[in-house]
Amino acid sequence: MAEYNLLIACPRNRERAAQSEVQYFVGDLLGDERLRVHRTRVTGLLASKTSLDPFEVVRRLREIAEENPYQFRFAIKFIPLERCVPTEIDSIKAAVEELGNKIAEMETFRITVRTRHTELRGGDIINEVAPLINREVNLDNPDRTVWIEVVGEWTGVSVLVPEKDILSIMTMRDDQY
After folding, report:
1. What is each CA distance from 52 to 15, 59, 97, 125, 156, in whole angstroms?
2. Dihedral sign, CA of 136, 139, 145, 147?
3. Looking only at Cα atoms, what is the longest distance across the chain?
4. N or C terminus of the chain: which is more exposed, having fewer CB within 10 Å?
């Protein structure tokens, strides 16, 4: 199974252009000589393996985008993945259990699940993993989000602060008006 640590969204049928853009920004500008970018089975979705810290990649790409978000024409959303596991409930649960300690005792959390090309349902995944995190749930304004991206036979899992750790170019463009 492939091991990815960065998920990239792009417009449908623009995957090749987005791959080139990711190669330029992460490979050339940020200096990741071992960067690999692959198409997924999902139209408009790329998966990448960077040798850099994916959270740092997103932070540095945000700095570039803050100068001019229109530099990013095709790669329009970047999500760091901390674990990449087979799409099986037990594997997903193990990843969530391992990452759950990133949520401090006094912090609140929510779970966000995106499913594509799978028979697993988001609600079923939430019902399985939520009891593993012994913290208060806050669906409206959580301190942390357990982010689960199911992409066919593999699933990416992260514990993050979406406003800080996910880069959405379209949101940045909207904020400029």
Report:
1. 22, 12, 24, 29, 17
2. positive
3. 45
4. C
Strand 136-137 with 108-116, pairing: parallel
Amino acid at site 133: I
Please give the mean pLDDT across all residues of the chain: 95
Q: In a 3-state reduction of DSSP, which class is residue 131?
A: helix
Extract the tokens encoding 40.
């997924």
Which of the four pLDDT bands, split at 50, 70 and 90, describes residue 173?
low
Per-residue confidence band for 177, with pLDDT thresholds at 50, 70 and 90: very low
**Domain extent listing, the chain:** 6-81+164-175, 83-160
Bridge partners of 157, per DSSP, are 83, 148
